[in-house]
Design a protein that fits this description.
This protein is an alpha/beta fold. The protein folds into two domains: 6-249, Peroxisomal Thiolase, Chain A, domain 1 (3-Layer(aba) Sandwich), CATH 3.40.47; 259-410, Thiolase/Chalcone synthase (Peroxisomal Thiolase, Chain A, domain 1), CATH 3.40.47.10. The chain is 33% helix and 18% strand. It has 13 helices and 14 strands. A ten-stranded mixed beta sheet has the order 5-4-6-7-1-8-14-13-9-10, with helices on both faces. A two-stranded antiparallel sheet has the order 2-3. A two-stranded antiparallel sheet has the order 11-12. Helix 11 links the parallel strand 9 and strand 10 (331-333). The model has no long low-confidence stretch (mean pLDDT 96).
Amino acid sequence: MNTDRIVVTGLGAVTPVGLTMPQTWSALLDGVSGIGPITRFDASELPVRIAGEVKGFDPLQRMTQKQVSRSARFTHLAVAAAAEALEDAGIVVDEDTASEIGVVMNTAVAGMGEIAAAEDDRAAGGWRRVPATFVPGVIPNMPASHISMALGIHGPTLGSALACASGNYAVLDAARLIRAGEAEVVIAGGTDASISPVMFSGLAMMGALSRNNDDPQGASRPFDRDRDGFVYGEGAVALVVESERHALARGATSYAVVLGGALTSDAFHIAAPEPEGRYAAEAIRLALERSGVGPTDLDYVCAHGTSTIANDRTETRALHTALGDRATEVAVSSPKSMVGHLIGSAGALSLAVCALAIRDGVVPPTINLEHADPECDLDYVPLVKRELPVHVAIANAFGFGGQNCVVALGAPDA
């Protein structure tokens, strides 16, 4: 068992506000919204016509034409984020290192949009309209597998699904692989890209999405009294994690230490959170306890902060329960106010935000928070970024089905 600390040494991202991690981080700090009218399909007949789309992305910069044609968009985004993260970490894949590197790239909805489109083609033109590459293109393990193929990685390669907690959990899974001695380095993160008619139809029927079509950039407003639902987004985020011993041996610089984390289940409802946030609070409490820190050590919470009535209130209650009197003193903010909900990659983005907040001593704002919901009474860093020394941060992620995942990061020199 490897008892070394686990550190984050590389970051990569493709999001609605940037095609790289530096672009994304700069936009988040500046309060830039990446939400706009849907362009990926004709949404004119739908009640929801806005989304957080990735713009200007070219998968051929990281993949061959054959690889692109045999895979789906959620894979294209994942490969780009993973390649950037590996480059950022300064790791070269060769015969000596290929088997020491693993991949954990999780997803929530996988290739749902492509599945719906293929069914339309089959219904219109018969079974021969569905290509032979369809099935291996849309199944959930393909982002991880294509990352291994594109980068020449031969270590453990896997993907799992925890709804909107998927990206967060990938880092915990990666830490377990390293501690078990199954890998020296792991590329971990999440990806999703299903801005499609079927997805928006289903979520619109649930009443989950904001219908503020006339003001896309003001539609995602976590913790604000006027919020009316979340904004669906797409993207991929990857973190390179490795043992501190391995990082020091190759002279790498660490963004943060993976202190610990926790998983709990609401066991309450297929979509709604447990109203009092008891098990979300338990995940927060356990994550801190397993990290060897307490509420007084916590400086920043990168919130799940979806901009739905129920989730924002439940998360607020959970933070009160878990942190006690400290809850009102800790900075809390939600990047979803700018990028929307990136589903399977949302938690990975939150962890990247925590790592960069630790490095730079600044936390991004919650934009559009003009009038706080009276039941949301914490310090949500409204409207503008805040200079703040961050030594310990947590990323919250709560998914459909009641899956709660909280991960704590700490400063490398702590």
